[in-house]
Amino acid sequence: MKATATAPGKTILVGEHFVVYGEAAIVMAINRRVQVTVEGRQNRSLYISSDLGFSGTFVEDKYTAETGYVGGEKVLKPIKISAQTVLNAFEKKIGLNISVHSSIPMAVGLGSSGALAVATVAAVGKFLGRELSADKIVSLSTEAEKVVHINPSGIDQAISTYGGVIVYKKEEGITRLKTASAIPLVIGNTGIQRNTGILVDNVRMKRSRFPEIMNLMNSAAKHLSRQFIVALKSDALNSLGELMDINQGLLMAIGVSHEALDRLVYAARASGAVGAKLTGAGGGGCMIALTPLDQRERVSEAIRRVGGTPIIAKKADKGVHCWIHE
Amino acid sequence: MKATATAPGKTILVGEHFVVYGEAAIVMAINRRVQVTVEGRQNRSLYISSDLGFSGTFVEDKYTAETGYVGGEKVLKPIKISAQTVLNAFEKKIGLNISVHSSIPMAVGLGSSGALAVATVAAVGKFLGRELSADKIVSLSTEAEKVVHINPSGIDQAISTYGGVIVYKKEEGITRLKTASAIPLVIGNTGIQRNTGILVDNVRMKRSRFPEIMNLMNSAAKHLSRQFIVALKSDALNSLGELMDINQGLLMAIGVSHEALDRLVYAARASGAVGAKLTGAGGGGCMIALTPLDQRERVSEAIRRVGGTPIIAKKADKGVHCWIHE
């Protein structure tokens, strides 16, 4: 008997960075998913195979690589921790074979870690015969994430669990947003590594040097998120695009854009996108271009031409789901 | 006997576009100048020769081209109007030979029109034996400009007359700013034509669609100009650069940047500039990069490599001046 769960990745539509200072980030699940399959195992170790380039076995905290030696432990450990968190929650002392397939590029701000944690938690729960509520999946996967990252917001776990669109504010937490908008995107991956912590710190330092200016841009971002929600509810594609363009300017102003991101942004806008901006931490990683369906190929080609890797994506209304098979 | 006057061009350091809504623009005279030489003529026509690609004669409003036929009248007429304005002011009915040399690229936001008007007014005044005060030169050249453009702010005429740095606000007019800062720049010309009127209109329309967001960005620009003045007074090069970078983000947010401008901006920043932004109307035209003296060649080369034409420039403390010779 096996249990499988799939969970979607995510993209931040607007509000990244400003969310650190209390404004709303609007986050959407995308139709790129991870799939985690769990089955029983003879001994009490956790064996993880993946298409992430690594496989290996954890016996307690000791990792033994099977394929893809260097860096494997770092990539697979969060999966192990997610599985272990569920086993601990139900006081099960068993081993598992965990197999992972992902169509979400890693470490570019598309929520692959959150989706992996959520799918792993759901699959292990299902395998144990427990019907985990969505809230329980969020809390268990966020708990697991805490071992890896200090202070996760839980936003990635929530969007991978619920799907659709959510609004997140530091003080108010998560609100699910009903929208009929399809939000057709072309995501452009610059392929450039960035360090989220350094980018967040740089914004904080800029803020200490120029508090009034940065506060006013924060307020502009607050209103921008509000207008974005209004436009989402009425499926006003052009307004959504224009607000994304404004947001990109604000993100450039606070210093988190990057030459490669803006190159992709301009290429997308010039090829039929109604708006484009970086998504996530910035400084590299990905941008998103809101793109009418009939322009997606053109925008993809334009992104490719200026050195990016395009990913066609849209809203995934379905969050995590799981089933038993074989 | 001849009279010659020279006047500097200008660049907007920060505040363009936001100035339309009442915030401060900070404008600097640059060491690129026009030179206008005036001498007597047998008849009452105005003969203008120039290194702008045109020469010809005005008899009243009738233009007869001598060289560079198409477009010559449009280029030379403002010079004729400036000269005529001074002749009229002193009720002189004489002809003049006017010879113009310019090292300011035209129609890219570097104030060539203003400098031409100012130098022409000063040279004609000097030729007539009148000691025109600076204020008189500003008012006569602005009066002349009114024939060509509706509602000139007078800012270009003021900076070409006074030199140095001035702060301009719609409600308060012009304030001269004392600063010891050298403000070493590399200006990058994209070579892309833009239409200032359309750009200003686009901002106005964006403002009507998203009033709160645009108002808050205006307020951010207001504080930015204030901080810029503080940094100018203390010659804080890094702060000036950082504020220029923030300003560029705001200008992108209101929709007046351009792919070519940002390409030059990023190239300059990556090659030693401490800050860079578009200058003037945007949508093409020029960008400026605040660049320590020992980095100017590198930044110039970087701008050239990505398709721009670099112009090394710095603050011109000397405004218009004129002399009699031969």
Quick overview of this protein structure:
In chain A, 40% of the residues lie in helices and 27% in strands. The first copy, chain A, is α+β, with helices and mostly antiparallel strands and 326 residues long. In chain A, helix 2 crosses helix 4 (155-162) and helix 3 (134-148) packs antiparallel against helix 4 (155-162).
Descriptive notes:
- The structure is a homodimer of 326-residue chains.
- With 326 residues, chain A is an alpha+beta fold.
- The first copy, chain A, is built from nine helices and 13 strands.
- In chain A, strand 3 (46-50) and strand 4 form a beta hairpin.
- Chain A starts with a strand and ends with a strand.
- Chain A binds chain B through residues 206, 209-210, 212-213, 216-217, 219-220, 223-224, 227, 239, 242-243, 245-255, 257, 259, 262-263, 266, 270, and chain B through 206, 209-210, 212-213, 216-217, 219-220, 223-224, 227, 239, 242-243, 245-255, 257, 259, 262-263, 266, 270.
Helices, strands, pairings?
The structure is a homodimer of 326-residue chains.
Chain A: E1 2-14, E2 25-40, E3 46-50, E4 55-59, E5 62-67, H1 72-89, E6 96-102, H2 112-127, H3 134-148, H4 155-162, E7 165-169, E8 173-177, E9 185-189, H5 196-209, H6 211-233, H7 237-253, H8 259-269, E10 275-279, E11 286-290, H9 296-305, E12 309-313, E13 321-325
Parallel strand pairs in A: 3-6
Antiparallel strand pairs in A: 1-2, 1-13, 2-6, 2-7, 3-4, 4-5, 7-8, 9-11, 9-12, 10-11
Helix pairs in contact in A: 1-2, 1-3, 2-3, 2-4, 3-4, 5-6, 6-7, 8-9
